[in-house]
Amino acid sequence: MKTLNKLLVSAAFLPSMAMSQELTFATAGGVWLETITEACLDPYAESAGVEVAGVATEDTAAQIRAQMMTQIQWDIVEVPSAVLALGTAEGWFEPLDWDKIDPENQLPDVARQENGIGFTTYSEGIVYRTDGENDPINSWADFWNVEEFPGNRSLRDTPLGNLEYALLADGVSKEELYDVLSSEEGVDRAFAKLDEIKPNITVWWTAGQQPIQYIASGDVDYSTTWNGRVTSAVEDGIPAGFVWNEAALIVGYYAVMKGSEQVDLANDLLKFCWTDPQISANVVERMPYPGFAPGLYDLLPEETAQNLSTFPANEEVQFAFDGGFWAENRPELQDRWQSWRLSN
């Protein structure tokens, strides 16, 4: 009789134990966390009968490293491509179960990394004023051509992207870009090309809102920026255009933390959120950063689709930013960049 009572008590607790399962989902805060909670986390929690706690993060590499040495606090974490590469090398992440997430292999290779799923994209490229006297700029060679396209210019104060843009301006193809940049001669070539444009850089930007502010005020005619900023600027009446040609396509990833006790649930959530085109469309309605869910563009108005980084006509003229290259080479190149910036 005592055994039967124990079984009955245990059975009575089963539903509450299932509901007590909790996933901790670490991602960028603010509007993004609000968006992803509404579009993905809450629907998944209701569908799976679990709790999903979204937490805001900033410097994920430092936080992940700290958790690896102490206690794992997250199950899923947002990482840029460079941190994904670093974490893969350091053993920070669990391998994803692609047989569960994408059994029909519908996602593109760039989204199907061993330890990360590509969940969103944005592009860094050239923004220009559309009310100027010059013809529209259309390449990095044009950006460097200050005689045919005169005007004030701005670049971000970082080697990331700028070395690639310099090589593209010097005639390197998108396909050979990182092969060239991986050599000492290629790095020298990039900095030599940057020497040419340096006198024409009016301001080096450091915060994401600055390029559009400079464009809006007329202080700058051409700058690098992120495509979503231009979309918002145009909606606000600012005469701005974005150049998709030779822009850097940048992918953000979600990874499952090594040591997570909810690996199966984590893979299930990634499948739920990032292979469903309707969820991706719901995200895009609030923020112009699409994922790779097959069928997404069938659900979007044409005018919306044309302003997104993975719209086919836009994606095919960009190059894929290689976070792995920067994870391996940034310390050395950052030092050289700082020395170059301080030189005449």
Question: What can you see in these coordinates?
Answer:
The chain is α/β, with parallel strands linked by helices. It has two domains: 20-121 and 251-315, Periplasmic binding protein-like II (D-Maltodextrin-Binding Protein, domain 2), CATH 3.40.190; 122-248 and 322-342, D-Maltodextrin-Binding Protein, domain 2. The protein has helices spanning 2-19, 30-48, 60-69, 81-90, 98-101, 140-144, 162-169, 177-181, 184-197, 210-217, 227-235, 263-274, 277-286, 302-305, 312-315, 323-342, and strands at 22-28, 51-57, 76-80, 93-94, 112-113, 116-129, 153-156, 201-205, 222-226, 240-257, 319-320. Strands 1, 2, 3, 4, 5, 6, 7, 8, 9, 10 and 11 form an eleven-stranded mixed beta sheet that branches. Helix 2 links the parallel strand 1 (22-28) and strand 2 (51-57). Helix 2 runs antiparallel to helix 13 and helix 7 (162-169) packs across helix 9 (184-197). It is globular, with a radius of gyration of 23 Å. Mean pLDDT is 92; it is low at 1-19.
Q: Characteristics of this structure?
A:
Spermidine/putrescine ABC transporter periplasmic substrate-binding protein; D-Maltodextrin-Binding Protein, domain 2; disordered N terminus; 2 domains; globular; 11-stranded mixed β-sheet; single chain; alpha/beta; 344 residues; SBP
Task: Briefly characterize the structure.
It contains 16 helices and eleven strands.
The main β sheet shows up as:
11 strands, mixed
Radius of gyration: 23 Å
CATH class placement of the largest domain: Alpha Beta
Number of helices: 16
What would CATH call the homologous superfamily of the largest domain?
Periplasmic binding protein-like II
- Give the low-confidence spans: 1-19
InterPro entries: SBP
Protein name: Spermidine/putrescine ABC transporter periplasmic substrate-binding protein
Keywords: Signal
Signal peptide: 1-20
